[in-house]
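pasting for the record
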Amino acid sequence: MDSKIQMQMMLAKMMEEKHTFTYKKLVVPMSMRSIYWKYFGFPATDEGDILTKVKIVCILCKTQITYNRNTSNLRMHLQNKHAHELLELEASAPPRRPSMDPKEKRAMKKLKLPGLSPHIYTTAVDGTVQIEGDIQFITDPNITLQNIDDDSSSNQNVRVVLKGNTQGMSNQNVAIILPEENNSSSHIHSMVDGKTVSDAIAEFIILDLQLPDVVEGRGFQRLIATLRSPCEIPSKTKLEEEIIPKIYDSFKDPAMSALSGINSEMSMSIEEWSLASGEPYITVSVHYQPSVEPVMETKVLCSIHCAADMDSNQWSITFDALFQEWDLKIDHITAVVIATTREEILTALSHKGLSLVPCLVHSLQLCTTSCFEQPEVAAVLNKCRAIIASINRNANAAATLRIQEQMMQHSVFQIEEGVLAADYPKVWTSTYLMLEQMLVRRNILPSVLENVEISDKEAFILNDHEWKMLEDLVMILEPFKVTIMTLSEEKIPLISLLKPLLWQLNSSHLKVKDTDTEFAQSFKATLSESLSARYSDPAVDVLLQTATTLDPRFKLLPYATEEDKSIISGPMKQMLISYVEEERGCPNGEESPSKKSRLSGMEFLLGDLCTGQSGMPAEERANLELVQYQSESAAALDQCPLTWWARAAAKCPNLARLARKYNCVPASSVPPGRIPVENQVLFHKRRANLSPELVDKLLFLNGNHVV
């Protein structure tokens, strides 16, 4: 059997096996310096020999934790399970560790001299740990594979791995060390999950929105060389002109086929953004419910450059070509969610009779940005950015900040998770986080800034009035942040959320109070007016109200007036009647004569004596479904309305169909996974760095790629 087949068999075998270790002690080597190791240890024998470093065991509760070469999960376990012990541990000084001469340490490790313990902590406790296929791959040209052990009953975590002619490393957490002589011929390295390395690199570029230039970087090439992948790295030109276009075509054809088979209602979304050069683009997507499944699918169609000279007529032609290419029917589009303020685009879409619903994420960005740009607020924000930049540039200031933060961890004014970092103005939540972190560190910033040489400290340091302004900003914007978090946590954030969220923001959180400062009152009023203006169109209001009524979580409309309910009841009932009539095949709920079956003997003899032969009128059927819907108990706030309607479709088939018309419209053009601040900032930056030649293809593939 050749070495390649032998290696593959060994890999498969080891991935399936479970290794059980019986330990007598828990030990922590001298090299582990963190204070958190006091309550953990590696499984070891009576002599203190470590059995495996794949798992560590908590001394307090014997919970087994995967060792990931840092102490973050150790502290997290203590915080979640042993908070009191963690508090005492962090309150005390870290234990002093005796220094040891390197030669003495090496001698001790080899000879295991009695009286010289190689461990900082040793705990007499026994138990078992089980390792399931935890394999680590390492490459080393000086290592060869010898004496492959086929004994399936072996308890060693590592088979037989030899370095030259030296002793086997049986106690190390290394299952396979791939030899250099096998690298050039082994199929394992040229394939990853059935893909060639070229395919894997292309997928990396698509998923992470990287430029193809990355393959020409020395660091990237050294990474591939370190992995010993026996492949030719595709060139930038080959990626741009061959590989990515080929993948694009392979994705586009199925996407077009999927959309052409959709006969139900759908929605569109348009998101405007800019390259790093400032060139504006829009990305167009469609959203729909496939068949009767309780899910909403999204397909990115294209990204279009917004040329400065394009007027509404040219945009109208562009959209017509887009509809024709993708076989989209305008009368099937319930609404277009817009994250743009370009009048020429809005006019072109409106002239086609499409309903335009502002994107909530974009609307909050516009509202907050307009407030941040007020001269007084902008001056304070610039001061905050300058303070953060100065601290980051000064090593002493940065070190002092870290020390002060650690001290605050043990005080009553604890710092919550988060670091002090400058914002990314294109994502307003990053500005909110910057202000929030500044406020938390208000008491320690003066001592930190003592290390920074500033000519005019009075103009640089925030005064009491400005600190109060920051407090007001954070207090007022917190509900906006919660709104963003709500959208990101929703599996499918639909437009039915907009009315309740907007009502709550305007009627409660942005309501001016007597206790508010003059600045807070002005800031609230500006935000409320700006937000209300975005959704002031009466047609949009009716659409949102209807969508909310058809959402089983909000169907009772506790915040709506009787006038609001009456405005939507008429149009909604009329749409429902038309669905009933359409289902029966002709108007007024009467069956078509061509579809009428032959009269039975009973109908021929007694038909004149019975009423309702033609069935229930369409209006009565519509009323019955509405009453049935209202009688159902409201869904829980965390329940998906699509799932609720999938179950209720048997009782209210026509109303369920009407609900599908509105349940295909998202509340935001930004998908939920991209809404959290860190994800949004990262995506914005990566998208802005794309080259104009690949913008359309890469964003199409990134948006439609399924891992």
